[in-house]
Amino acid sequence: MQLSVWTYEGPPHVGAMRIATGMRGVHLVLHAPQGDTYADLLFTMIERRNARPPVTFTTFQARDLGGDTAQLFSDAVRDAYARFQPEALLVCASCTGELIQDNPSGLAHALGLPAPVIALDLPSYQKKENWGAAETFYQLVRAFAPKTDAPRTPKPPGARFSCNILGPTALGFRHRDDVAEVCKILAALDIDVNVVAPLGASPADLARLPDADCSIVLYPEIAETAARYLERTHGQKIIRTMPIGQQATADFIAELAALAGIDPANRSFGDARLPWWSRSVDSNYLTGKRVFIFGDGGHAIAAARIARDELGFEVVGLGSYSRELARDVRACAEALGLTALITDDYLEVEAAIADLQPELVLGTQMERHIAKRLGIACAVISAPAHVQDYPARYAPQMGFEGANVIFDTWVHPLVMGLEEHLLAMFRDDFEFHDGAGPSHLAATPAPQPVPAAAPAAGDIAWSADAEKELSKIPFFVRGKARRNTERFAVERGLSVIHIETLYDAKSHFAR
Amino acid sequence: MSLAAPDTSPAETTRPILRERGQREVFCGLTSIVWLHRKIQDAFFLVVGSRTCAHLIQSAAGVMVFAEPRFATAIMEERDLAGLADANDELDRIVTQLLARRPDIKLLFLVGSCPSEVIKLDLHKAAERLSAAHFPRTRVLNYSGSGIETTFTQGEDACLAALAAAAPRDDANNLLIVGALPDVVEDQFARLFAEIGIARTDFFPARRADALPPIGPSTRFLLAQPFLTDTTRALEARGAKRIRAPFPFGAEGATAWFQAAADAWSIPEMEFRRAIAPHRARAKRALESHRQALEGRSIFFFPDSQLEPSLARFLSQELGMRPIEVGTPYLNQTLLAEELAQLPADCVLSEGQDVELQLDRCRAAKPDIAVCGLGLANPLEAEGITTKWAIELVFSPIHGFDQAGDLAGLFSRPLRRRAALKV
Ligand code: SF4
Please, what are the domains in chain A? Predict the structure, then answer.
């Protein structure tokens, strides 16, 4: 058993729902109790979808358990087919369905429906949402783009290079806009988009997957398994660079152009404003801002590169809840001189943030909660996300426009350069005090202490005057000052921190 | 449990009931934890379940940012399923870890889920064992919030039924108000019962688990929520007597509700009237401002919280709305007898659900407003049907005289908005 307060990922069948809901022409029948229907609201409320997910829940009850839950399942599949007439049916069991062992696969196939039935085996007690999405997508691709022994028909001379864009789903973080942005890049390169999947694709579209020359894995957590399969069976090369950030986008273009044999020079890929916005003097104050990054593997790695190389931040912590990408995240952290935090335990992440006292947290909605409580600025870079992270406006993360969006989004929660100085100079101004937070943001509540998770300062005590002096330091660096001073005191074997200790530490850590 | 047992009572309505047993689009009882854990301030809710259960609660809690929630899930893993002995050891380990982290917890609920029930993990035994280990610092109780046993608010019912066992048995001749209410409503009620002249009013659940009110043969209780079937049974088993009443929604509902208590305490009619009059007048005034938006409008209830029959009564009787269908996950005809008697004859009462068929009926009926769960609301809006999310009716103060206007506002706002938008 694992004690969990908040979870980063849902169960694997929610991953299956993200695939089914993203696609057209499929219907998913889940052998699950009534409460599991909550998952519909993820799509209708958080993502504001205007239609119900194409999912039927059998909603068996205790009174059915002694009787025939298998019959209930068969009836649900038959009724769902009759009502929705999908091109393909997906069937699987949720965590409770798995325990009653009704064999959804056998039951659904026995109905002899005039549509293909794909049975999913999603082990709820081992795996999680992203794995479930990847597995569902893979099973669909395998079913509709089977291995053939026929040799690939050679392309007619002069035919354009084409690729599949794999990975976007329903409820994905900015997937809708990322796809649009990547399609623009492909158009600028004169490369055709063969199929985008699963988002917006039908089973018939999946059958056309083998026609493309390569796979673009937009989101590795979801598309990697399917892309490998297509590589194995249909010889499609894989582009794995996620075009998030200025340089990654440039790399992505170069990689794709090389594969397609196209010269990327003298083409327009949109206005890349991030470099100038970052070099302009106003951004000077961003230098060395300490950031903590946590998210799914792909987004966390991309964010680390942007933070360090494109905004001039100092990455003080990097982690991910994606075990599937743990190795990549670890390597990325190592290159930054850090040890990656690979966990899906929210409390562990909270403790790490409280301990590191960064000036900016880049994370999921969970880290937003944590940062809010600690009074630290935060921007969301990865699922899981709240409704406000599914904006009406165009807000991709990918491509040059995505880099522009990222610059704005990450810088927005910070206190701006000149304001930072003024706050430091006139600390005692009764109206201008720092409790008010950044002047361009709505008033934020005063940060609350974190119970238990906060690192104990050991045996060090703050004298009253030092504590008072500390309170004059602007809130956005106060945490760092406290931590540095305590570290300084520990290293010197001091038991009480006085004003002088505070300033000694300041000069010691000056940079 | 309550889902299975049909209530056979003398008060059974003669009105036909449409009973459906198809796909249900409702929350399970775990969802009640979202408000219960705020209500009882020294209690902690530990769900023994799966990742789905954890995900459900956090999705239902949605946009709320909690300081530190007093709930968590012990997520079962592969090896917990293999051997129940190990599962019990694991549970003991987690509870010990939890109580070490939160020494302020006086009452711990082990909340059963579908997986824990299907593998027959005996949480009652576990609670006894853990109580023995941690009492008197922490008492451990259990109940089921599973989706195979409970729907949404039935989680509160099961919780309170279990909690009743922990209340002292003293004879106090008290009035007990039963059902979790927002603190502000509770305070209003306490003041009003005092004005009416009832000497001792207690609330159940209390805000603190270590201050539970006495429940004994001289206790008379008034339900504040209609979904408390098992709790009623548990209180009656202790000898407490239920005061029959409609529920305190709207001016009429609240008047009848307070009146039922006043009658039980033999408060003279004049005194009762005098105490209640200004509150009643205020509620009536507040309702008037919503009448224009609501009068004559039709309304369709999808099943959600069991509040539906009471709300339909309020909206039709006090605001002139026309209920077309009143769906409820479970219909307790005894507890709702007073409400059902006042529902218009031509509205359909339905119990249970077959969501696709019900959606068909809703589309055909084209109601002015549909009350439904979060999974259905935006899709119905997109089809042109104005909706009210049912969950808001459980998460906001709607009981009593001073909330009557707010309750009406929950229904009039979507209609006003629909009329205001030109896009
Ligand atoms: S319906 Fe059952 S399995 Fe699903 S969330 Fe509720 S208790 Fe957990």
Answer: 12-144 (3.40.50.1980), 162-260 (3.40.50.1980), 274-420 (3.40.50.1980), 461-509 (1.10.8.550)
